[in-house]
Write a structure and sequence with these properties.
314 residues, 10-stranded mixed sheet
Length: 314
Amino acid sequence: MISTITLNPSVDKTVYISKLMPYETNRVLRVETDAGGKGINCSRMLKRLGAETLAVAFLGGTTGEFVRAILDKEGIPHDCVWTSKPTRTCICVEDSTESPPTTFNERGGPIEHSELVDLLEKAKNAARRSAYVVFGGSVPVGVNPDIYKVLIQIAANGGAKAVLDADGEAFAEGVKTKPFMIKPNRDEAEHFLGEEFESKADVARAALKFAEMGIQLTVISLGKQGAIACYKGQVYDAVAPEVKAVSTIGSGDSMIAGILYALECGLGIEDALRMGCAAGAATAMSDGADIGEKADVEKLVGLVKVSRIDFAPL
């Protein structure tokens, strides 16, 4: 089983307009509302691929009820901690131009100490039942940034391999505990290492630096270009298939799901990277915060090109 733990889930609302005009009235063409949060997204893709998954999260209020209803509708088992404060709402404004979307993300929380204690117990239970536990997303108010360091150790103690997808201080603290896998995007990896990548070779060397820190599998996602990965000292270039991207929300989470699903099925790392890139691309083809369909993943997986990168690192 592959469990996910989401500290700061959300209701994701995508608002579509013709063109964003600041300080003026913008007419909304349509609205897409869905459950969000890195772990939630990952569990949804895992379920669609056919994996056994468990979603653990903080949920509260009517927004939390909405997220729980989505999990129930999709048949995803969940073991959530009900919080006194409502689950946050994140708004994404998409227009018909080529401009990046404009987002408004609530902070989430505050989380009470007793609620955090309950979640840590659920994390222990999930780790004992799982091959992998995915930790992802931002940290809500009331929770220390070093929480992923604690959770990764809980996963290891329970016999599960930890996967981390976060940024900033939460990511930096989590890496110290040497999770099995990390998946920063290009910007997050640059920020952590204090470097600017000018080529894929630079990204590959960055992946090797994470390996030197004790990370067995590093996947640095590159958007429509795919990803650079380092597994057990070998670096790979995974080139994603060309698709018409509608919304990239949840694509990175879907990539993690595809990789872990393949690894749990006993496939090798190259096949896992193909599955991950296909899952990410399938989600990029979907509207708003929706997750890609299994049929699309199966169509795309054969179009992903994976090659080894051999060079002398600087």
